[in-house]
From TrEMBL:
The lineage of its organism: Eukaryota, Metazoa, Chordata, Craniata, Vertebrata. One of its GO terms (cellular component) is membrane. This is TNF superfamily member 14. The keyword Cytoplasm does not apply. Pfam families: TNF (PF00229). GO terms for molecular function: cytokine activity; tumor necrosis factor receptor binding.
Length: 198
């Protein structure tokens, strides 16, 4: 060691080092549960398919319901005049305000059935004219007794009748009132007549 060269010592300690570097831990391989993931994925797909199928059937049912209700005949006519036709039935307003005819006809105070079926008919007195019977037949009648004496200055009475009847094509239904002088027709809320297929 005499030639003037300085050799480092075998044990050198670096005072500038802050921490000892550690070897990073080895990552464990995750156990992949393919069975559970496949099961969960199939449940999600099955749930989405169920929702899509339910939506399809709901839309289809709604369209069928709209189609079925819009195809059923119905009519609602309003009391408009005290005049009567040849058969004695009251005349009605069938095209103004909230009166309507849907797959039914109106002629001379009568509603004429276009499609056979069961109908709910509502009004005061219902009569049916049909080629099957020689004379008219009362379907529903309401008898109201009123006093026409001098001491009775004012009285009010109303009548509402309704029922379910089977009507054939071209049969007519109409309203007759025996005492027309007691009718009070102002608007469509006091006297009306109608039917709808059930």
């Amino acid at each position: 060691m005499g030639d003037g060269v300085v050799y480092p010592s075998v044990f050198v300690v670096d005072g500038q080092q802050h921490g000892v570097p550690f070897v990073p831990p080895m990552r464990r391989k995750r156990r992949v549960c393919w069975h559970s993931q496949l099961f969960l994925a199939s449940l999600v797909i099955l749930a989405l398919a169920g929702v899509a199928t339910e939506g399809y059937f709901l839309i289809r049912f709604q369209k069928e319901l709209e189609k079925a209700t819009s195809q059923k005949p119905a009519a609602h006519v309003l009391g408009a005049a005290f005049t009567t036709s040849g058969n004695g039935s009251l005349q009605w307003e069938h095209s103004k305000d909230w009166a309507f005819l849907h797959d039914m006809r109106y002629q001379g105070g009568s509603l004429i059935c276009i499609k056979s079926g069961y109908y709910y008919i509502y009004s005061k007195i219902h009569l049916m004219k049909t080629p099957r019977y020689a004379e008219e037949m009362k379907l529903v009648e309401n008898l109201i007794l009123y006093c026409d004496g001098k001491d009775s200055e004012f009285w009010r009475q109303n009548s509402f009748l309704g029922g379910i009847f089977h009507l054939e094509e071209e049969e007519q239904i109409y309203v007759k009132v025996s005492q027309r002088q007691v009718l009070q027709i102002r608007d469509g809320t006091r006297s009306y007549f109608g039917t709808f297929m059930i």
